[in-house]
Structure formats: structure tokens, C-alpha cells
Design goal:
Helices cover 60% and strands 0% of the residues. The chain is built from eight helices and no strands. α1 packs across α4. The radius of gyration is 16 Å and the shape is flat.
Amino acid sequence: METAKLKKFAQFARRSLIEQVSAKLNLVMADGSAARREQPKAIAELEKQLQEHNREQVIERIAYTWFNRFCALRFMDVNRYTRIGVVSPAEGQFQPEILAEAKMGHIDEEMVSEKIRQQIFALLAGLYPVAIRSLRPIACLWLQPVTISTGRCPTFSSALLISPNF
């Protein structure tokens, strides 16, 4: 099996995630940021991590966590462990299947509370930015059984949710 392309992709993805997590960290840690108001517990935990470890270590850990989550979701999509593609588009499409379904008003009522569904529909209607950021954490709940091998995902990483460009 030729692994050179995979290695090149992994290196690119790592650098890209580190850059995005770093930028997001600057945004959420700014005084008066929306994240400070909306996710005070996650931000407090993030501040604690920044005191205990240097900034680069925290960024690296979060980027690594998100890389693993996205890889796991992609693996689950490809092998159809999920009912719907979380990071993968449907055949012939370009956007994640979960986003396309949400745009059509299809969100699993068993997985997502009514309050969250209404927030997602508001996002999709243009009342809030970037709906996919609300859909991916829900999909990560499906990964709970998978975390046996990787450990529980840290809460503070959710404050730094990014949309990778790879």
C-alpha cells in the first residue's frame, strides 16, 4: 500500500488544524468574547489548561483531538456505521450529508433535542453563522463508544471547534 500521499495529507492536516485552533484560541480567549458568555465552564477549563501547560502544548493537544475525531467520523461514514455522512458528502454532492439533510429539515429527533434542532434551523436560516459547527458536536456524541481506546474528549476542546479546510 502506497502511504506517501496519506503521510503528506496527515502532515498538511496537522499544520492546518494547529493554525485554525491557534486562531480560534485567540478569538475565544479575548475579553468579552461570545465563548466566554456562552461556554463559561469550557473557557474556565481551557484557562486552567493554559496555566498548567504552555500554549503550544494545549493547541497541539486540541488539534490532535480534532484530527482524531474527524478521522473517526470519516471512517464511520465510509463504513456506514453512521446512518448519515457526518463529514462525508453523499454520492455526487459536495457538502457533508448531515448538513444537506439538516437544510432539508431532517434532523434525528432521537439524537437532538427540540431546542438544539430549533437553533440549527435558525443557523440554517441565516440567523446565526455556520450551522455545521452545531451539527458536528452532535455527531461526536456517536463517538462515545469509540473513546474507550482514545480516552474521553476534553470539554474545553469543544470551545475551539473548527471547520477544517482539508
